[in-house]
Amino acid sequence: MVYRPDIDGLRALAVLVVLAFHAGMPALSGGFVGVDVFLVISGYVITAKILADVEAGHFTVAGFYERRIRRILPMLAATLLGTALAAPLLLPAPALADLARSIAASAGFVSNLYFWKSSSYFDVAAQTRPLLHTWSLSLEEQFYLFIPLLLPVLLRRPHGRSRRPAAAILLAGALASFALSLWLTPRAPTTSFYLLPTRAWELLLGGLLAFLRPGLVPARAPREGLAAAGLALILVPMLSYDEATPFPGLGAVPPCLGAALIILAGASGPSRVGTLLAARPCVAVGLASYALYMVHWPLIVLTRYALLRDPTGLETVALMAACGLLAYAGRRWIETPFRYPARPVPRTVLFRRTGAALMASAALGLAVGAWARGADPAATSLAALEREAWRGGRCFLENQDPSAWAGEACRLATGTGRTALLWGDSFAAHYMPGLARNAGALSHDILQYTAAGCPPLLAYRSRAHPDCAAFNARLPEVIRAHGVDHVVLAARWDLVPPRALASLPDTLARLRVAGVSVSLIGPSPLFAFDVALLGARGAGTRNDGSAAWFARSGHREAETLRALAPGAGLIDPEAYFCTPPLCRYRAEGTDLFVDYGHFSAAGSDRAVRAYFPLLRPLHAALAP
User: Fold this and answer.
1) Does the pLDDT of residue 622 top 70, yes or no?
2) Does the pLDDT of residue 28 top 80, yes or no?
3) What CATH architecture applies to the domain 379-620?
4) How do residues 538-573 score in pLDDT, each as one tens digit?
5) Per-domain residue ranges of the chain
6) Angle between helices 61-86 and 147-155 (to 10 degrees)
7) How does pLDDT run across 366-399, given as a tens digit for each residue?
8) Nearest-angstrom CA–CA distance, 87 and 301
9) 3-state secondary structure of 595
């Protein structure tokens, strides 16, 4: 095989945008597509190597797996070991127990299955899992259980070797996988995101490129056009996608096709894009891309645990520099010596040592988990108890069909004869405990209409919560059926993509047409971690039993909401809880939140008394 420096440059582009996305750079809200570029590259490089070896007559399955072991295992083992050693110093026991399971899953190359069963990639909780990024490595290795066994068989014919039957079968497999991804993404987005059957087409797309003859595009002008189009197809999704983009499905086509076009153009000759990617700095980053990918996410997550907040701009720059230094060290002193040993060990010895290393990693994970099992579950039990007031499964739906909403059973009766609708996600539902405590002071009955991850926007669509569209579409019917004359909108607004948030004026206009008045509650405080962890670490504690800590500012979202809804009378919860950059999470020895941002019963009570819009004037004057 001829070395392709432009492919290393393409690896550099992919890993850098993934890093920027994980570091929270808002301009690259679609940086997660860098992983898809990696999958196409991997499919191309591995398939091309297998084809070359088979046609040269010296391919062996054992040799293939020896190369994969030398390429993958050293940095994986180092990442698992380093994370396992650092985590007990920073992570609370429940997070350590989860980490233990993810270490074992990563060592067995099934972490994509583990994370599929336990969270969405875009969930808030997923951002505190140090090994979340290993899902893509597990996906690749599952793919490479089949290709080295299948390709040599497909290439073997009675009268010599031919690539056409093999290419046809791989093409059929890619089309079937793509069709499944199209069908499953809107129905089960987390399944489609994590699992091989809906991702295999991306690897197979790269693999099919290896079947094309070199020099397929000899003319310079078409080659330049292909390379430029390929780069645009990668860059546009990086800049325009976000967590609401249906993905993979059709959403994965542009970045994957873009990577394929760049690889195809580069196989035929030079281009401006290829020359840029082949520049020495790009190649240097590309050569270290695997090490950089492996170390960056654990370092980001552990840094957040150490700070108990999100890094500042300068801290993020320092963090990225540390990732680069660790990646350089990993490539020089871990990857390279194992990949190109001065004195190679026999293959059987390598396989035995690999098995022992994987079992040791899994055992280490289990040991960390056993150490964490002594955690006191009281805080978790308290959170679950306080959330019972949300009336989950009936009035607060969690990944349920909208028909599960319980209608009149979701009414908090106050005897006033008027009805207001509380509409939104869990950050609307968390007002229910306080509303129940202050029912006698309310001017309306409260009808709870809330669903997890569903902000109160009629045009909202979400890859992570596909039921939201149908849930919100039922709102006009709910208003008519239950005599609603006022609607209170509340949500975690920072998670609403700008394009979706821009539909707020239309939602408000349609509510006015329906004859209801509106109140809009803005962002409430959000901490980087659960307040139980903040309290255990003594973050911002004071002698009077209160505590305040750094919280994410919702000022930008509040200003956007004011601009979009000038007549809605925006209520700003942060004004009652925060003196920026600190926000109270404890008062008089009682936690005001049950996790990173949802109110406890006590916090909900204080919030309702402080600013909820439907309290009678006498009660509205009470301080939180």
Assistant:
1) no
2) yes
3) 3-Layer(aba) Sandwich (3.40)
4) 999 998 889 999 998 888 899 999 999 987 889 999
5) 5-372, 379-620
6) 170
7) 777 666 655 444 444 445 556 678 988 899 998 8
8) 10
9) coil
What is the three-class DSSP state of 565?
coil
Q: How far apart are CA 232 and CA 259, in angstroms?
A: 10
Phi-psi sector, 547: left (phi>0), alpha (psi -120 to 50), beta: beta
Structure tokens at 431: 């007002």
Average confidence (pLDDT) over 592-597: 92
The two structure tokens encoding residue 427 = 């950050």
CA distance 405 to 409: 9
pLDDT band at 157 (very low <50, low <70, confident <90, very high): low
As a whole number of Å, the end-to-end CA separation of the chain is: 69
Encoded amino acid at 132, one letter: L
* Span 253-279, average pLDDT: 95
- For residue 620, is pLDDT > 50? no
What does DSSP say about strands 582-587 and 547-550: parallel, antiparallel, or unpaired? Answer: antiparallel
- 419-432: per-residue pLDDT in tens? 999 999 999 999 99
Vertex 532, ends 382 and 537: CA angle to 5°? 155
Strands 419-424 and 484-490, by their bridges, are parallel
Q: CB-based burial of residue 537 (10 Å sphere; 0-12 exposed, 13-18 middle, 19+ buried)? A: middle
Using alpha carbons, select from 116, 118, 111, 133 the residue that is nearest to residue 358. Answer: 111
Longest dimension (CA), the chain: 93
Q: How far is Cα 182 from Cα 390, in angstroms, rounded to an integer? A: 35
Q: Give residue 339's pLDDT.
A: 85
Position 624 scores a pLDDT of 47
Angle CA 76–79–83, to nearest 5: 145
pLDDT surpassing 50 at residue 219: yes
Q: For the chain, what's the residue count? A: 624
pLDDT average, residue stretch 83-107: 88
Whose tokens are 């005599």? That residue is 483
Task: Indicate the helix (H) or strand (E) that contains 257.
Answer: helix 253-268
- Residue keyed to tokens 């209409």: 449
Residue type, 284: A
d(CA 474, CA 455): 14
Identify the three-state secondary structure at position 363.
Answer: helix
> pLDDT value at position 419?
96
Q: Give per-residue pLDDT as tens, 287-306.
A: 999 999 999 999 999 999 99
List the one residue out of 239, 178, 229 whose CA is nearest residue 497. 239
DSSP secondary structure, 153-166, as one string: HHHEETTEE-SHHH
Going by C-beta distance under 8 Å and a sequence separation of 6 or more, which residues neighbour residue 528?
304, 307, 308, 309, 310, 550, 552, 596
Q: At 351, list the tokens.
A: 């396989």
Integer Cα distance of 422 and 500 in angstroms: 20
Q: Which three-class secondary structure string do you get for 275-319?
A: HHHCCHHHHHHHHCHHHHHHHHHHHHHHHHHHHCCCCCHHHHHHH
Residue 451 DSSP class: E
Residue 423 buriedness (CB in 10 A; 0-12 / 13-18 / 19+):
buried
- Please state, in angstroms and as integers, the Cα–Cα distance from residue 72 to each residue in 105, 140, 331, following that order: 15, 11, 11
- CA 509, distance to chain mean position in Å, is 33
Cα within 13 Å of Cα(59), Cβ side: 21
428 conformational bin, left if phi > 0, alpha if psi -120 to 50, beta if neither:
alpha
Q: How far apart are the C-alpha atoms of 382 and 376, rounded to whole Å?
A: 11
